[in-house]
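Regression check, S-adenosylmethionine case 273:
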Amino acid sequence: MKPLPPLREVIARYGLSASRALGQNFLLDEQLLDRIAHIPGDLRGQRVYEVGPGPGGLTRALLRAGAEVVAVERDARCLPALAELADAAEGRLRVVAGDAMRIEERAEAGDGAHIAANLPYNVGTALLVRWLGGAQWPPWWASLTLMFQREVAERIVAAPNTAAYGRLAVLAQWRGAARIAMKVHRSAFVPPPKVMSAVVHIVPKPAPEGVRADVLEALTAAAFGQRRKMLRQSLKGLPGALEALEKVGIDPQRRAETLSVEEFVELARAMGE
Ligand code: SAM
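Current build output:
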């Protein structure tokens, strides 16, 4: 890597004041960024797909860790600063201008890439649901290292019988191992958001046999769509669901939040038969 000016200087020089509309809260603390970049493990020679590099703080840390980075950013104001970083990275950074929700991410990032991102809440959750879904498993990505509002991070790793447990927990845990790898204080961001954050790390694990992802997704959407209701009520409109409850011996008077991830998997399997 060629030497780089401090991030604050880059932000000032290119006039990258954080835009609230784009959900921008930048991380500038190099030590903290290095800790995040180490969450996926040894990145030397590995490819990383970064969503929303902004002025490039996390991108720099990923490059320092030895990764090759493909970064997609939709704020055109950041592109000159990222071009400067790409130049310093001597072939290890490719920047794609565009919206991460719309680009052909797999073709851009390549199979086996680790995904890393510090994203606005709504975009982050939508992308997470997309990355966790689909018929193909193991997926095209090797791991996810994603910053979320702490409350969302807690929903992703939640256990049954807790208020945080819901659709996100089941979708993240039925064929993935999810953990909170780091808590991040709001004061670490410029400007500081109103709430605390946390980095979630997810790696794929073997998918249970005979379970279709689309069936499990429909099941969790229905069950948690009316989480206060008994399953016999919330699953009434879902073809085959009530029969599946009986088949696997789950009491229809229970509520969604009492079912373990394994019980959701069993139900989805019985519905697919
Ligand atoms: N990674 C930088 C950091 O940690 O300091 C910036 C983080 S900031 C919270 C989120 C970044 O994601 C912003 O640069 C924003 O422009 C970008 N962004 C927001 N929505 C996006 C989208 N749909 N596709 C690509 N980038 C997006």
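Comparison notes: The pocket of S-adenosylmethionine is lined by residues 22-27, 51-54, 57-58, 72-75, 78, 99-101, 118-120, 123 (CB under 6 Å). The chain has a mean pLDDT of 96. No diff flagged against the previous build.
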